[in-house]
Prior knowledge:
The structure is a homodimer. By secondary structure, the first copy, chain A, is α+β, with helices and mostly antiparallel strands. The first copy, chain A, has three domains: 59-182, Flavocytochrome B2, Chain A, domain 1; 200-422, Sulfite Oxidase, Chain A, domain 2, CATH 3.90.420; 440-561, Sandwich (Immunoglobulin-like). Chain A is built from 14 helices and 27 strands. Chain A has a five-stranded mixed sheet. The longest helix of chain A has 12 residues, at 47-58. At the A-B interface, strand 22 and strand 23 of A face strand 22 and strand 23 of B. Chains A, B: Its main location: mitochondrion.
Amino acid sequence: MISRLTIRRLLERHHVGCQALAIRSMQSQHSSHREWNKQQQQQHTRHKHQALATLAGFGAGVALWLKYNHQEAAAASLESEDNESIGKYGARRKGLPEYNLDDVSKHGTMQDRVWVSYRHGVYDITDFIAEHPGGDKILMGAGGSVEPFWTLYAVHKNDHVLDMFEKYRIGNLAADDVGASVKNMSDPYGNEPRRHIALKPSSKKPFNAEPPLALLVDSLITPNELFYVRNHLPVPEVDASTYELEVCDEELQKEKVFTLKDLKKYPKHTVTATIMCAGNRRSEMTQVKPVKGLSWGQAAIGNATWSGARLCDVLRDLGITDGKTDALHIQFEGLDTDPAHMPYGASIPIEKALDPHGDVILAYEMNGEPIPRDHGYPIRVIVPGVVGARNVKWLGRIVVSKDESDSHWQQNDYKGFAPSVDWDTVDFKKSPAIQELPVISAICEPLEGQTVGVKNGKVNVKGYAWSGGGRKIVRVDVSSDGGKNWQAADVLECDGARHPQAWGWSIWKAEIPVPKSKLEAQLCAKAVDSQYNTQPENFENIWNLRGVLANAYHRVNIKLAR
Amino acid sequence: MISRLTIRRLLERHHVGCQALAIRSMQSQHSSHREWNKQQQQQHTRHKHQALATLAGFGAGVALWLKYNHQEAAAASLESEDNESIGKYGARRKGLPEYNLDDVSKHGTMQDRVWVSYRHGVYDITDFIAEHPGGDKILMGAGGSVEPFWTLYAVHKNDHVLDMFEKYRIGNLAADDVGASVKNMSDPYGNEPRRHIALKPSSKKPFNAEPPLALLVDSLITPNELFYVRNHLPVPEVDASTYELEVCDEELQKEKVFTLKDLKKYPKHTVTATIMCAGNRRSEMTQVKPVKGLSWGQAAIGNATWSGARLCDVLRDLGITDGKTDALHIQFEGLDTDPAHMPYGASIPIEKALDPHGDVILAYEMNGEPIPRDHGYPIRVIVPGVVGARNVKWLGRIVVSKDESDSHWQQNDYKGFAPSVDWDTVDFKKSPAIQELPVISAICEPLEGQTVGVKNGKVNVKGYAWSGGGRKIVRVDVSSDGGKNWQAADVLECDGARHPQAWGWSIWKAEIPVPKSKLEAQLCAKAVDSQYNTQPENFENIWNLRGVLANAYHRVNIKLAR
């Protein structure tokens, strides 16, 4: 099987224009792509616009999914797959004009007005586009059917989305063309890895899941099988023997392709680093006011030992060193792609990548084993201290650039806003992309609502604490009276943790007195890091529309058994 | 005049044993000290104990001052100088045995019991020493008079201290010896620089003062004359033409002495950096529960442009570079000394010093002028992003070491603790020395209690925001209803501020609607930095016994004129 990277390159090179684009049908194609790479260097900064132009022309389908994917429609993700009311949407409606797919494909730009089809329906979504939080990304698949997208993002198949969608209905699709766009298209999620039964999914397609909180802090190192999974797209199947990582510098016009074997020739660098999803603990923030996003508990975080080549060593071989480049960002692209074959993408500031103490590695091992498929096999970039979203899995390409990644996830997602900003007023350009995460902690034992035995007037409490940016945890305070009185917990840190390279979390324990003769107690935890930053008390004032950065005190209400 | 550095060296070299030690009387002495330096390298790690042994023998006076200096006895500092009830303390008391200074000097160690004299009184303070929060530092001047110390630290002359002190009274001092210890001793504060009349002192000896809040944010750069002053000791008078900076590496047994001219040969490096006292905004924290420390308002912070030699360039010339040393800390000693001639001292982790992007400089200019005496003339080490206490003024010595500075200010001061820790339970070893400061902000206009004109339903609010560790301010939220609703302010940042080298503060402005028809409002401000850390809501849960790290939301109550 050829790699997804090659498929993506082929697609871009050939400006593939087939109507019912099916990934599997492409897998028999093969071609050298070296000569293409040279053009690609110049083309990369125009990547998005090139892709827009290309895709708008062949109509691979509309990208309404983008809106709903990045909002993640928390409520809908699991249930929607079996939504029984779907049949009523996209049904043939009397009295509307009839169009065929060729008609639809003529409406692929704003100038021509943007049309899409869904089942028996034709829709003019031009007026919706202006309101689209993700901007003109929605144009990517204009002029075709949305069905290939919705196969990938089952989340769309819920009444809320379909009700809204139906308002833009302008006609019926010719009977012969109905279903043409999904003919021969296999389930993109048909080849997902097997997962541990303990992982609790908040979304199945794409797969997102966290382990049970009670198992999370059994040891400083999180077992691979229990490490939370946050995928944005289907897991690509990558053949390590043909895997290639492309590294290029936009300005210097240099590029180099590395096989897995090439990467393993660099000194093997090992770091113990915690990776956390920006949305960890979102379910608590949601209680203040709903947010858009997967409803993560407190376990969208894990701590592992990662081994691989240091990115700064690899970049040095391209002549890219501190002070010898005008670039400002390092962009990463995954081999996981959306229906328009645009890869998952993110970037980090170049300071982090070039700093030998930044410990950014192109990791091929997780806890001493080849990185599991769900975590980025064969290569995941590990950016210690930085939000999970920049630790790009299935790494396919690195671009040294003056610009941030133009990906949706860098530009229009994973950013923090003031509580007053809502979807009607948000301007994603006004906030910086989340990189280093703030200090956080959580209580893992006991669990919310649990009945806990009181021994000698005390209960046992256990949890984790972590801070981004290599800041070390210097103290965890625990309270059993809702935050009136505090006691310092015993903190177990990762070996050799030293600011500003304390990348791994700490696990803490406390035996804490509970109020006498009471049958209930509210436990609270808050951590202090080596910059003496601490957590905010409540969620009200850090609430944000995406529900990220949910690092207020963790409060757990328990019942006391005496 | 010879430099203070030389005086200190002479004192240490000669194990000076004069009873009534007067700094000025030493200033005519002069000697080469090169041969001494070699011994000093080995001796440095035993610095404290050597000094204790030396000083205990000659009895320069007791060090009760240390306890009160590091607690800074907030309430007492200004008023105490004119305390009229002092006369009753240390008066001759009938029925007590009589001792002379020679008797007292035989009690300079714990084994012999520790005696001190004050005016006509002799005291056995042995049992007090065990309770002393500063540990055995109090032994430094055992076996002599406390008067030379109290001349320096007028704070002791208040009823609270003297009442406690009088309890340890054991005898009367022989009439001939009364006053001998302060004979010929001039006022150590007799040669302080002139200060701008706008600076409001919270302590005059040593001098500590902040500018009026309303002037603080007139510009991004704080004028030298209005920059807050935080001195721990008298300002030394240093002659730039004879100034010498000693740099040594304990392990490598290397040392080098630099004149000011030598330092100016290095490339001139300029950084704009904010310096803040760890106790800034302490007066707000005190409202929750009293703390020990100078009662700073919100203006113990300033932002200046500093120029000098990079510390990493200087260290490189001694062969000390990243990865080529086992040292972990860089210690700094000032030329300002206590009555036992121990210098002010502090240290920083070596990572910060050796990182070329850490921007640590040996600064000889502040805002384009030679550094003023109050700010460290001729050399102050500027450690951007790090608490003021480590930005050592009048820099006399740098030691590359495996150990932190053993100074009082590094070990037993400038540390954070949980709210539950009080002076009875504190163990200073349990917290790390404050280095990088957490995110903070303050409202500078309007002031607390001020009547403010409402225009179009709005009021103008202005302030500063800053975060340590080079974290950039990415947002400031302002509220006019006590924190229920928030509006993002307009933020003006220093040129070129980029995480993690955003060393300078930001000034922010907002025109914010106030509740209709109300005559009062509570303004609040909170900042978010580029690590997305934000401020805690209230002081209750960050209260600490020293009143440091007071970075809760700033709340200002105003009256509205309509």
